[in-house]
Amino acid sequence: MLRDRVLSAIVLIPIVAGLAYLGGYWWLSGVGLAGALASFELFRLLKQGEYNPNTWFGIAWTLALIATGFWPDIFPLGVVIGVGLILTLTLALFRRGARPATDWAWTAAGAIYLGVLLSSFVALRMRPDGFAWLALAVLTTWITDSGAYFVGITVGRRKMAPRLSPKKTWEGAIGGWVIGVICGAALGIWLVNLPPVQAILLAGVLCLLAPLGDLAESMMKRQVGVKDSSGLIPGHGGVLDRLDSLLFIVPATYYASLLLG
Fold first, then answer.
1. Does 199 score more than 80 pLDDT?
2. How many domains is the chain built from?
3. Distance between CA 47 and CA 141 in Å, rounded?
4. Treating both helix axes as pointing N-terminal to C-terminal, what angle do 170-192 and 196-224 enclose, rounded to 10 degrees?
5. Core vs surface per residue 96-120: b (16+ CB within 10 A) or e
């Protein structure tokens, strides 16, 4: 298990870092691929829960929403959301099934959840100092998650959300937050030249969001009785499993970059 995790990381980290560094169409393509795979995993999870979302249209809608981060003038976010809602509702009128309205709602929720949040990955990188801000978001997420894991397995006792994620503890969450804030603040000062107070405040918010993103995905998986969204990435689960915390942290970092950058 650990060997698979390490090998997967050795392969994936240079690829993702390279696409992020290159930016432009390279990064858009990478985020688009991740979005397509993650949305496929999400809609498959929903089908395991006996729902019937429109998978392929949902994926297409997710990709269109991601594109709003790259071409905001050509694909305004509100327009893409509105057109998608109308089209999916129209398609639902002609689909077979006992719960067409519920299936339409899940198609819309899945596409908007992933598409809107992933569009910020693209929009953040499009900023003049976007690579540094993106690095801040990813590194802070990784440090917070890793800190929570190691503190949790060392001194963790009190379960944080046993119904959603039995292994998460309050000790791990608090330890991860403290470690994440210290390191995230240092990264904020170093990477994007934030004043110390702003760096500490931003790191504090980001490190609070990390476990919430993780728990949000755990809620979906628990509802359908699975541990991982897929087995696509050996030792890590699926793409959705790797994006969980980032889906909350990167959008927050994007808006922070608009306010503080």
1. yes
2. 2
3. 30
4. 130
5. eeeebeebbbbbbebbbbbbbbbbb
